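Extended Data, panel c. Modelled sequence:
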Amino acid sequence: MQKIAVIGAGAWGTALAVVARRAGRDVRLWARNSRVAKAINERHENTAYLAGIELDPSILATNEIEEAAKDAEAVLLVTPAQHTRAIVIELAAHVPPSVPTLVCAKGVEEGAGKLMSEVLAELAPGRAVGVLSGPTFAREVARGLPTAITLATDAEGLGRTLVKALGSATFRPYWSSDVIGAQIGGAVKNVLAIACGIVEGRELGDNARAALITRGLAEMVRLGLAKGARSETLYGLSGLGDLALTCTGRQSRNMSLGMALGAGETLEAVLAKRNTVAEGVYTAASVTALAKRLKVEMPIASAVNAILHEGAAIDEAVAGLLARPFKAEGVE
């Protein structure tokens, strides 16, 4: 598996292009914006999304999907979750069904409430699909700092092949067969990270954040089990690991967005200042709707969704969580 196409040249897509090249693969990187592709090819730097990181000159960027996907032996799909459907439709015309696709976005589709693997199964039936998810800040990955991540596929042989294709001394994929669990963890942690950011921005204290992370993990596990995931996946890198990173690291786009909301900024004002996507904003409504459909109680995720999309005041949402009945731990 020598030729890798990376679809999406944001910070994470660019970091994964670095990972694949560091592992010795031939890499083509698709950027929607031609100026981003030009900067990568001419300056060997993604000045828009990962400034200051020098890229290997052999990483070739293009804004033509057909060119990026040509002769690829694996595709890394790194576009935002809410754009996945449109990109898969475009990709399907250029990538044979025999070429595996590794989903690297974290989210649940708005409206349909589908995981990214379910979107692919609908639009590209028969294609081998995997998921790459875990505690990863793009800049640290691109710098070659030690990172461990979950690589989930239904087929162990394919999983081992992809691990070998991407793995290196500092980027360590751990194979799992739990494709559903890897996606639930990655999606829910973004919503919980916004909640932790609100706690930080509101100066509610470290005790409150620790409680939120713990109870948020319980929500993640409940939803995952209802969807068919395994609990050990949600207590692993793509669940608890990613949750711990995103709820404590200020590099997190979702946590920093929550911090701004907690400090009194409006969602519109925060989003207007950014050129990057905080997936939790869009996933909050999708996760809440999915939980309702599966009859899973997720009060923290529901409170975040109410703040983001239903006009709920932060103090009232926090008061509502604190007013919930006392329970024995582990009893839902």
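The first helix runs from residue 11 to 22. This feature is highlighted in the accompanying rendering.
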